Amino acid sequence: MSLLSEFKAFAVKGNVVDMAVGIIIGAAFGKIVSSFVGDVVMPPLGLLIGGVDFSDLAVVLKAAEGDSAAVVLAYGKFIQTVVDFIIVAFAIFMGIKVINRLKREEAAAPAEPPAPSVEQQLLGEIRDLLKARHDQP
């Protein structure tokens, strides 16, 4: 098998396509969560703590001198990233919780017993015929 045909067989497998779709949807979901955190959650939270914007929180370790830039410990950006992570983790937790609940409900529903196979039906008919013949005087 040539390298190209092996790659083609690998690339069109369902798992690879599913993974690619998951990555694309995950990237889009990340943008949604970033917007939610930055535009919806953080402004009221900043207002509650006195109008402070987390991303602006920083400590200047060394002031700018001449052409050199200031050395800044931007811990507010770290706090913002931690809050983003917590919200994403919680959203994923809630999604998995819903999926697990749906799986449990599906599993709890009693499954209909499978229909007997053709062999089982034939054996049942033979049994009934033999029993009827044996029961006759």
List the helices and strands and how they pair.
Elements: H1 3-11, H2 14-48, E1 59-62, E2 71-73, H3 75-108, H4 118-135
Antiparallel strand pairs: 1-2
Helix pairs in contact: 2-3
Distance between the termini: 71 Å
Q: Can you identify the CATH superfamily?
A: Large-conductance mechanosensitive channel, MscL, domain 1
Rounded mean pLDDT score = 82
Total individual domains: 1
Fraction of residues in β-strands: 5-15%
CATH topology name:
Non-ribosomal Peptide Synthetase Peptidyl Carrier Protein, Chain A
Strand order of the largest sheet: 1-2
Helix content: over 70%
Outline the structure in words.
This protein has 137 residues and is mainly alpha-helical. The protein has one domain: Orthogonal Bundle (Non-ribosomal Peptide Synthetase Peptidyl Carrier Protein, Chain A). The chain is 70% helix and 5% strand. The chain has four helices and two strands. It has helices at residues 3-11, 14-48, 75-108, 118-135; strands at residues 59-62, 71-73. The protein has a two-stranded antiparallel sheet. β1 and β2 form a beta hairpin. The longest helix is centred in the N-terminal third of the chain and has 35 residues, at 14-48. The N and C termini lie far apart (71 Å). It is a multi-pass membrane protein. Belongs to the MscL family. Its main location: membrane. Keywords: Cell inner membrane, Cell membrane, Ion channel, Ion transport, Membrane, Transmembrane, Transmembrane helix, Transport. Channel that opens in response to stretch forces in the membrane lipid bilayer. May participate in the regulation of osmotic pressure changes within the cell.
